Amino acid sequence: MTRITQVWIGLLLLTGATVLLAELAPPRAVLVPGALILAYGKARLILGEYLELRQAPGWFLGARRGLAGVMVLFAVLALAG
């Protein structure tokens, strides 16, 4: 199995986990961080494999840190409101 196929399967599994999480309708304090963590995982796979940023470690690290910062901001805003 090629690497890109493995990543594609990983994206499908993370998407399925997101759907399952939403269907379970947990409290907001669980739903928001859970959905954001799953979204971060998908974004990391896309950045690293499809955009091939894993071959440029500095850019990949910067993109991951920036994305994590945005996700934390979203979580704080969603849980505060």
From TrEMBL:
<keyword id="KW-1003">Cell membrane</keyword>
<keyword id="KW-0812">Transmembrane</keyword>
<keyword id="KW-1133">Transmembrane helix</keyword>
<feature type="transmembrane region" description="Helical">
    <location>
        <begin position="59"/>
        <end position="80"/>
    </location>
</feature>
<protein>
    <recommendedName>
        <fullName>Nitric oxide reductase F protein</fullName>
    </recommendedName>
</protein>
<dbReference type="Pfam" id="PF03626">
    <property type="entry name" value="COX4_pro"/>
</dbReference>
<dbReference type="InterPro" id="IPR005171">
    <property type="entry name" value="Cyt_c_oxidase_su4_prok"/>
</dbReference>
<keyword id="KW-0472">Membrane</keyword>
<dbReference type="GO" id="GO:0005886">
    <property type="term" value="C:plasma membrane"/>
</dbReference>
